[in-house]
Structures are given as structure tokens and as C-alpha cells.
Amino acid sequence: xxxxxxxxxxxxxxxxxxxxxxxxxxxxxxxxxxxxxxxxxxxxxxxxxxxxxxxxxxxxxxxxxxxxxxxxxxxxxxxxxxxxxxxxxxxxxxxxxxxxxxxxxxxxxxxxxxxxxxxxxxxxxxxxxxxxxxxxxxxxxxxxxxxxxxxxxxxxxxxxxxxxxxxxxxxxxxxxxxxxxxxxxxxxxxxxxxxxxxxxxxxxxxxxxxxxxxxxxxxxxxxxxxxxxxxxxxxxxxxxxxxxxxxxxxxxxxxxxxxxxxxxx
Length: 265
Known about the structure:
The protein is mostly helical. The protein is 62% helix and 2% strand. It contains twelve helices and two strands. It has helices at residues 20-27, 30-42, 46-68, 76-89, 94-106, 123-129, 133-148, 150-173, 177-202, 222-225, 232-237, 246-255, and strands at 215-216, 262-263. It has a two-stranded parallel ribbon. α5 (94-106) packs across α7 (133-148), α5 crosses α8 (150-173) and α7 runs antiparallel to α8 (150-173). The longest helix is centred in the last third of the chain and has 26 residues, at 177-202. The radius of gyration is 18 Å and the shape is globular. 40% of the residues are buried.
């Protein structure tokens, strides 16, 4: 679903640009959580390990999401390298997710939106189908890229091959239990992530009374806990703006009179 932009170009264009320190901060967000996860796993602090792994996955989602839209403040080549690294550590192909995510933006909640289909399901049905969600996206991305971009298709297959190599090294070549646990936790994260990344921000938004197609979150304490990933209405209407500037965008939209939206929570 698309909508006319409420803010004029000059009222939001400044939010596209990063300050140099913001770029460094953005791409390094997952690092402390990964270090904490490895330390907790090595020292058998189970609760802390699970908490750190969850936030590692969340911060990787934030970085990769900006990378999909090439709004990390880096060159296109450098952004592609970031996606490649995230593919390995998150146990997926970021190029595959990029293909389906761009389709989601072009045809949000329409029939050919493979990413958005899960938002149309009831809660319990969504939970049942969520474990196969990532596989479904990869299948669609491989099929779509084979027809439209052989280069993209190659990189998807390359990232999948890297994951196979990574899993082989972790489980059969290296004797590092913390990494073995990490791979399992990442696969489990993918199995439940559709509930947060798609369903929570799009469910019941195909109705005519929801003209913007997405939900948003305005809580001043919940939004930071979610690393501002739930400013989804804002993102869909202004996808060039990086996540770190979405709270500012939300304030400007509210000042401009945006009042017809549904909340995530």
C-alpha cells in the first residue's frame, strides 16, 4: 500500500544524512551483544546468553534493514559487504531477504507480497507458519532473481553456500561450543522473528480504515528497547531515512497532523 507523503521533501530530506559518528555507531550495534553472548555462553550464564542473543539478532535486523535500502551511510559496495557478513552471523542470505523486502515495499500487503502474507494470518496460524517463513522468502527470492537479476541470484546462492561452510566449520572443524549454541539460537530466532518483524507491524492493516498500511509505536521507553525498529509506518513512507532518525521523523509527522494510525502496542 502506498500513500502520498505528508511532509514535503525539504521537511524530511535532512534526516537522510548521517553524521560520521552515527555511521560507526550504526554498523557496530550488534558487536557488544555478540561479545556478551559469547562470554555468557562460555561461562554458562544461560539467561544472559539468551538475552544477548536476542538483542544481537535485533540489532543485526536493524543494520540489515538499513542495508536493504542502502541507507547505512556507506557506499553501495561497502553496504553489500555488510550484508554478506550479516548473512553468515545471522544464518541466512541477506540478499534473498532484500529481494523480498523490496517487493514488500512496492506491493505492501498485496497478493504478490510474499513477505507481508503472514500479517494477514490470525495469531496462532501465524505462529504455526513462522518457522517456515525464512525458507519461503529464500525460495521466492531465488525464483524472482533468476528471472530478473542473475547477479543477485548468484549472490544469494553464494551467501547460502557460505552458511553451509560456516555451519560445517562450527559443528565439525572447530571445538567452540559458544559458536555452536549461537548457530542454534539464530535459527530459532528466524523461526519466531516474523511475529515481530512483519505480523506485529502489519496485522489488520489491509482494512480500508488503515490508510497507511503499517502500524507504529510512539512509546518513549518501549521504542528504545526495540531499537526504534517499530516506527514502521514512518519507514514505509520514508524508506530512505535511517532507523536512527525515525523518532525525529515521527515527531515531524505528528506536528504535521498525522493522527490516523494504528499502534503496534
